[in-house]
Every structure is written in C-alpha cells, then in structure tokens.
Amino acid sequence: MSLEVVQVTAGRMDNFSYLVYCPASKKGLGVDPSFAPERLLAAAAERGVALEVLVNTHGHNDHIAGNDRILSATGARLAAHPLDLPGADLPLEEGTLIPVGEGRVEVLHTPGHTPGSITLHPPGALITGDTLFVTCVGRADLPGSDPEALYRSLRRLAALPPETEIFPGHDYGPRPVSTVAF
C-alpha cells in the first residue's frame, strides 16, 4: 500500500513538518511539529486522518517544540531515537518498521547532526530531518554533532535509488522537495 507524504510549513525557522498517512485507512503519523503544531493538526483534519504516532527526527527544540500540543490533541504516541529523546513512548532504532494503516515506514539511523538523528523511509521517499536538505546538509558543529558520522549517513542516503524523493526538515534550498539524483 502506498503512503501519502504531505509537507507542512511549520514556523519561524523555515521548518517543515510532515503528515504521512494511509489513504485507505486514514491512519497516519506526524513528524516534527516544530513551532506550528496547529498546521500539522489542520493537515490531518483536512484529510480525515487520525494521527496515531508522532515522530521526531531528532531532539532539537525547533523540531520538538510542538510535541505536547500534538500529543494532547490526538492521543498519539511519541516516537524517537533514545539517544535524542530517551523518554519517548516508542524508541526507534535502525530498521524499526512503523505501521501506518496498511503501509509501513522504515527507520534509518542517520547520526551526525545529532547522535540520535533518524531518517524516515516510506516507500519511494526520505524524510531527512536535519541530516540532508535540498543542496546542503545539517550542521555538524553543534554539541553532540559528529562530522564523520554525518558524512557516512549522507553516503548511505546517496546510495538509494536516484528517484527517491527527499523531504527535508527545513526550506533551505532552491525548492522544498528534491530527489537523491538532484
């Protein structure tokens, strides 16, 4: 079953949130609500989607600031890598498969920006958080960052099929969505 990915503008730092949902079941997951969680809630409501899981790609405040609003409004469970958010309801590791209605989203552990950075891999797409933007990459000069780990994570993503769509955590490039080939 194919999953839909909806990109949502999410606040004052050019953040993107995401809604990933199964069109058949209308079940979904939210990603990185940032400073504008109401926009993610509105995107789900417009499509009649019930958010069951809220995923954080990493633990920086500009991605997690809206968590409480989403969790209280939906009853969703929080999911994240334990190196960044050790108290999450669903600890995510390399290879974890998150069910989304009739589909699944694979978790890729892509450290470098933070130790617990993850990339979500619904079929044919990557939601990269701050690991990879369109034409640039996440910072690796912050506490807990690791430039060598980020390089390895980027090489791994670059090996995926060229048509794989890239959905970044920020609108820092010439366009909001790209591909591995671009």
Question: Concise description?
Answer:
By secondary structure, the chain is α/β, with parallel strands linked by helices. The protein is 19% helix and 31% strand.
Q: What can you see in these coordinates?
A:
The chain is α/β, with parallel strands linked by helices. The chain has one domain: Metallo-beta-lactamase, Chain A, CATH 3.60.15. The protein is 19% helix and 31% strand. It has four helices and twelve strands. The strands form three sheets. A six-stranded mixed β-sheet has the order 1-2-3-4-5-6, with helices on one face. Strands 7-8-9 form a three-stranded antiparallel β-sheet, with no helix packed on it. The chain starts with a strand and ends with a strand. The mean pLDDT is 97.
Order of H and E elements = EEEHEHHEEEEEEHEE
Helicity range: 10-25%
Summed up, the helix count is: 4
Tally of domains: 1
How far the N terminus sits from the C terminus, by CA atoms, comes to 26 Å
Poorly predicted runs are none
Strand content: 25-35%
Shape type: globular
Strand order of the largest sheet: 1-2-3-4-5-6
Instruction: Provide the CATH architecture.
Output: 4-Layer Sandwich
The CATH homology group name: Ribonuclease Z/Hydroxyacylglutathione hydrolase-like
CATH fold-level name = Metallo-beta-lactamase, Chain A
Number of strands: 12
What is the CATH C level class, in words? Alpha Beta
